[in-house]
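User: Some background: our group keeps a shared notebook of sequences we're curious about, and every so often someone picks one and asks for a predicted structure to add to the entry. Today it's my turn. The entry only has the sequence so far, pasted here. Could you supply the structure so I can complete it?
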Amino acid sequence: MKNADHAVLFFKLRDMLKKFEGFMVVTINEEGYYRLYTPSRRPFMAIAVQKKHVGVYSMTVYEKPEIVQRLAPRRIGKSCLGFSSDEDPLLDEVPAFIERCFQHCVHSGQVPMK
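Assistant: Of course. Here's the predicted structure to add to the notebook entry:
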């Protein structure tokens, strides 16, 4: 892990993604790095501990930037949200953000629903 001070934040964010494992493929699940792919082999979301923050990387943000909504202040680059504290009040917005990303993948055919 690049920065052990961010371990609690990493696990908090990773746990928010756990409910989507049944629809996705876990490609990496290591200490400090977690990645999910869609069944159609496209990146869905990754959580990675960096030196100064924990990044939430989402291909959906790249494809549909407006999906970040209230999380816009945490946006870093084209496809990443960065958090540096496990007490950040915007963390409460992350589950809804993940759900929006998931729904985008369902509606675009990346995640088939029966």
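Suggested note for the entry: The chain has one domain: 4-78+96-107. The longest strand covers residues 43-49.
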